[in-house]
Design brief:
There is one protein chain. The protein is an alpha/beta fold. The protein folds into three domains: about 80-325, HUPs (Rossmann fold, 3-Layer(aba) Sandwich); about 330-410 and about 530-630, Ribosomal Protein L25, Chain P, CATH 2.40.240.10; about 410-520, Ribosomal Protein L25, Chain P (Beta Barrel), CATH 2.40.240. Helices cover about 30% and strands about 20% of the residues. A seven-stranded mixed sheet has the order 14-27-28-29-25-26-15. A seven-stranded mixed sheet has the order 23-20-21-22-16-19-24, with no helix packed on it. Strands 6-7-8-9 form a four-stranded antiparallel sheet. Strand 10 (about 295-300), helix 12 and strand 11 form a beta-alpha-beta unit. The two termini are about 45 Å apart. The structure holds zinc ion. Zinc ion binds near residues 186, 187, 188 and 211. The site of zinc ion has 5 residues, from loops. One of its GO terms (biological process) is glutaminyl-tRNA aminoacylation. Pfam families: tRNA-synt_1c, tRNA-synt_1c_C, tRNA-synt_1c_C2. It catalyses: tRNA(Gln) + L-glutamine + ATP = L-glutaminyl-tRNA(Gln) + AMP + diphosphate. GO terms for molecular function: ATP binding; glutamine-tRNA ligase activity.
Length: about 625
């Protein structure tokens, strides 16, 4: 009996419109009915061409949903394949060079996936290089957080290096630049520099300041004095002697090579040894060169910097890596800037830098998004030279697709109502064996008890029966998932003060025809959990441009808490065998967020880091279908 029930249940499908579990036949019937209705509406619509465009727009999305994309697709074709062919090095070596001055966000995941993935695909290796050249902005905690996220995404750095490892070597090369007449110490102000670079509108003739004419000895003495601490910040800096007069590229207008940081904060790794620090433009290409990087991949903001990158390595006669630029990934509907995130955290609008409503990688991780889902999202987008401006909904769609086949299924009731089933008879106390995934038998199963008291979701009961409602209502039969027979509501009682239904009396209907719909339930004795369902943190697609700024654009209902949710016994099994899935970056030990599952008919969930042994907190990772606008703003 139990087996045939399980078999029948495995065949049920989710009706995305009503959220009910129904048979294949019933779903087909419903879809046809809706299609007929939609066709009627279209026929009434006097703009048929518009409807046509809509239909064709939808096609690629459903196609993408069906096909499983080659996980290496982004390296096999398009931009990254072209980059490799420009320089088909036998031993590819790339680098990921973050500045340790903040938490990485979803945009950085693209840089990680590209740099580490490109090398891995070509059998090469990747350096994780901390670009620690600006002690005023850098903090110890970011070194750890960044490395942790890289490993969580499933990548292993060949070596962890620091730009600061090269401070002496960089300094020596700066002196060499002076000696060959290619650098000079300048004392000009910001305003002077602007004038030299063509003035306010950039249209006046460019010129060099008098400092450019200093002889080598003077420049050397001044540069050594800078390092000896004899100059105040911003009173002296080393400039490269490029081609400010001839070149149209601002990156060639005698840009800064060395500066004295404003606050003179001691460096995390070199303390007070250095009074001067190399600029990004000076340090980056040289560190790439020192480390033997073959392909230096960065975002398109650095296209103009490619010229100075190549110029400096050539001028110094060192090994020359190849820089190429891809379009960055931006997510709309959120804020990513460090300043904005800091304000949200400090004003208490979110629970911290890792709040699941944010798009830092630590937040996405806490929310329960598996690392593999992030990589497959980036792979799906592909890599080109244009900016990817992506809506949150598209990211979530990709995550949902990834979770569908990679996590087990359980039953969880968000807002429970007690249902007392009379005459349960021989089923009372019986164990049913439930599959953790109807599609993946290898996931195994767990045992759940049938009890005469069960809990269903408040939204699955109506006090008055109506034609279009197929769930529980007085006199109406409804199937309980994995239960041998449907139930029928007989009566219900209400709390006289709140007017809320507190208990439903029901009966098992042994001779009923197959019910139209099935709902989820949990037995008596199920674990109580707190569920946090997050919605968009902002109301608009571009919070920073909102009237009154992003704080004025905050969605006041971005978090709904269900303090009395109940999850069935399969949760213990899912927890014991976490992480789901067993992905590269989480094998060695995932946090609570590795406990992921689909709550049938509800959403995908993961355990939150606020959980304790006795008090489990779950985050919604994503809904089962795209949030309707209404729900998102709830
Ligand atoms: Zn000057």
């Amino acid at each position: 009996m139990a087996d045939s029930v399980a078999e029948a249940m495995a065949k049920l499908q989710l009706d995305p419109e009503t959220g009910e579990m129904v048979s294949k036949g019933e779903l087909k019937k419903r879809m046809q009915k809706r299609a007929r209705k939609a066709a009627k509406v279209t026929a009434k619509d006097s703009q048929p061409p518009r409807a046509e465009t809509k239909a064709t727009e939808k096609k690629p999305a459903s196609k993408a949903a069906d096909s499983t994309l080659d996980p290496d697709a982004m390296f096999k074709q398009g931009f990254l394949s072209d980059v490799y062919n420009l320089r088909p090095a036998p031993k590819v070596r790339t680098r990921f060079p973050p500045e340790p001055n903040g938490y990485l966000h979803l945009g950085h995941a693209k840089a990680i996936a590209i740099n580490f993935g490109f090398a891995r695909y070509h059998g090469g290796e990747t350096m994780l290089r901390f670009d620690d050249t600006n002690p005023d902005a850098e903090e110890e905690k970011y070194f750890h957080a960044i490395e942790d996220i890289v490993r969580w995404l499933g990548f292993t750095p060949h070596q962890i290096t620091y730009s600061s490892d090269n401070f002496q070597r960089l300094y020596d090369l700066a002196e060499k630049m002076i000696q060959i007449g290619r650098a000079y110490v300048c004392h000009c102000t910001e305003a002077d520099l602007k004038l030299q670079r063509g003035g306010e509108d950039g249209k006046s003739p460019r010129f060099r300041c008098a400092h450019a004419d200093q002889d080598v000895e003077t420049n050397l003495t001044k540069f050594r004095d800078m390092q000896a601490g004899k100059y105040e910040p911003q009173t002296a800096f080393l400039r490269m002697k490029q081609s400010i007069l001839e070149s149209g590229n601002p990156q060639m207008w005698d840009i800064v090579a060395y500066r004295i940081p404003k606050n003179r904060t001691p460096h995390i790794r070199t303390g007070t040894k250095w009074h001067i620090y190399p600029s990004y433009d000076f340090a980056h290409c040289l560190c790439d060169s020192f480390e033997g990087i073959t392909h230096s991949l960065c975002t398109t903001e650095f296209i103009t910097a490619r010229e100075s990158y190549e110029w400096l390595n050539k001028t110094l006669g060192v090994y020359e890596p190849m820089q190429r630029e891809y379009g960055r990934l931006n997510i709309t509907g959120t804020v990513m800037s460090k300043r904005a995130l800091k304000e949200l955290v400090e004003r208490g609008h979110v629970r911290g830098w890792d709040d699941p409503r944010l798009y830092t990688l630590i937040a996405i991780r806490r929310r329960g998004v598996p690392p593999g889902a992030i990589l497959s999202f980036i792979n799906e987008l592909g890599v080109t030279t244009s900016l990817s401006l992506i809506q949150i909904a598209r990211f979530e769609q990709s995550v949902r697709r990834y979770l569908e086949t990679s996590v087990p299924r359980l039953m969880l009731v968000l807002d429970p109502i007690r249902v007392v089933i009379q005459d349960l008879g021989e089923f009372e106390g019986q164990d049913v064996e439930l599959a953790l995934s109807p599609k993946k038998p290898e996931f195994g199963s767990y045992k759940a008890k049938i009890t005469s008291t069960v809990y269903i979701d408040r939204s699955d009961f109506r006090e008055v029966t109506s034609k279009d409602f197929f769930r529980l209502s007085p006199g109406q039969n409804v199937g309980l998932l994995n239960m041998p027979h449907p139930i029928k509501a007989l009566s219900f009682s209400k709390d006289p003060t709140t007017g809320q239904v507190t208990e439903i009396q029901a009966a098992l209907v042994r001779d009923a025809p197959k019910p139209k719909a099935f709902i989820h339930w949990v037995p008596e004795g199920s674990r109580k959990v707190t569920v946090r369902v997050h919605h968009a943190l902002f109301k608009s697609e571009n919070p920073s441009a909102a009237e009154g700024g992003y704080l004025a654009d905050l969605n006041p209902n971005s978090e709904t808490i269900y303090p009395d949710a109940l999850v069935n016994s399969g949760f213990e099994e899912v927890r014991r065998r976490a992480p789901w899935p067993q992905a590269e970056g989480e094998k060695a030990g995932a946090g609570p967020e590795g406990v992921r599952f689909q709550a049938m008919r509800v959403a995908y969930f993961a355990m939150d880091s606020d959980s304790t042994e006795d008090s489990i907190v779950l985050n919604r990772i994503v809904a089962l279908k795209e949030d309707s606008k209404k729900e998102a703003e709830k």
